[in-house]
Amino acid sequence: MEVSESFGGYGVGLDESYRPLPSVYLAFLSIWFVSTCSWAVNTWKNRHFQQTNNLQWTLASVPLIKALQLALSFIFWYSCFNLQICSVWMSFGVYVTGVLFQTASFVSFLLISHGYCIMCERLSVPERRTTAALGCVFYLTLVGYRASVPYFTVLLLLNYFISFYVIFHHISKNLLLLREQLSFIEDEEVHAMHDAVYTKYMMFKKFQGAMQIVAVAETMIYLNLVDSPDKYWLRLLVREWAQFCIFVYIGWTFRSQELVPRFSFIPTLKPNLEIWLPPVYSIEMDATAFKDFSSHEWHIGVPSSLSCNQRFDDSVLVVIQHPHAQRPTSAPPSSATGPSSDSCPNKNGG
Questions:
Q1: Quick count: other Cβ atoms within 10 Å of Cβ 237?
Q2: Which end of the chain is more exposed for a tag (fewer CB within 10 A), N or C?
Q3: Are 336 and 282 contacting, i.e. CB atoms less than 8 angstroms apart?
Q4: How far apart are CA 133 and CA 249, in angstroms?
């Protein structure tokens, strides 16, 4: 077909097999736009759930960028077929937003795999640096691949491999930690925390399955080297539906909602080392001994000589039980409790 030249656009011959593209892009633009608005409204309405809400606002950038990409794609192809104008700048906008969408997607996957807002309130400095570095390298290699720079196909595949390895590695670590916590809860019969830990465990199991689907889908996309325009709109339809279903599934799994009690009981940062708790003893003495009790080396409840940088291996936590304390007859005496939340909870001082 013949198209006229115009400022900012070029006259080109378009294959008629591309004619369904404006309709496909418009349909998916409507779907992603509705999803983006629903996501934003749900996140705003549930903003009092501070923990998962932070994650939701972070993930909200993904559908927003995708909707922008689809809008630019629709305008570009519609103007080509109906206005006989194919804007170079519009094509460049489609290119940039497509790269940003893929980069934002993988950065979001990395954040979830680290357990952001699920296992800890924020990531540590090394985790943030690693995530930022992987995101930047992924963006640059994707730009080089889209621009057909030599050898960037190999670099992109290598970056995919490293990114997926990091994601699955952290998912496995979090699942292992949650399984250990569930076993401890069942052994110690701490039923109050069971639902919260089990909910987190199921979240990561669902996310692990979704990431396996993403890995297979990306592999199939890059193995499909056929660049024929025939049935391109059909391949585009399948790819867009797959992306939409994956992100809806992940977004629904980690949506802002009223979760089980104690779900938000998480540390500010994930401890890098194993948590150590000192042995606890209950000491009973008569009133005279209790009155005269004094120690320059220990305080009741927390050892005074222990600093946050020391280990708990050889420490002893002494708890004194008052001999005249009234004990309820309907319930067993309460057990001795450990240090308050202001003390050092682990050997990192975290």
A1: 16
A2: N
A3: yes
A4: 27
CA distance 29 to 37: 12
CA atoms within 13 A on the CB side of 148: 0
- Whether residue 203 contacts residue 191, with contact meaning beta carbons closer than 8 Å, is answered with no
Reduce the DSSP state of residue 158 to 3 states and report it.
Answer: helix
How far, in Å, CA of 59 to CA of 249, rounded?
13
Token couple for 96: 């940039």
- The pLDDT tens digits for 327-339 are 444 444 443 434 4
* Token representation of residue 291: 């009155």
List all residues 6 or more positions away from 249 whose beta carbon is below 8 Å from its beta carbon.
Answer: 206, 210
Answer yes or no: are the C-beta atoms of 164 and 156 closer than 8 Å: no
pLDDT digits (tens, 9 = 90+) for 119-149: 777 788 888 899 999 999 999 999 988 888 8
In total, the chain counts a number of residues equal to: 350
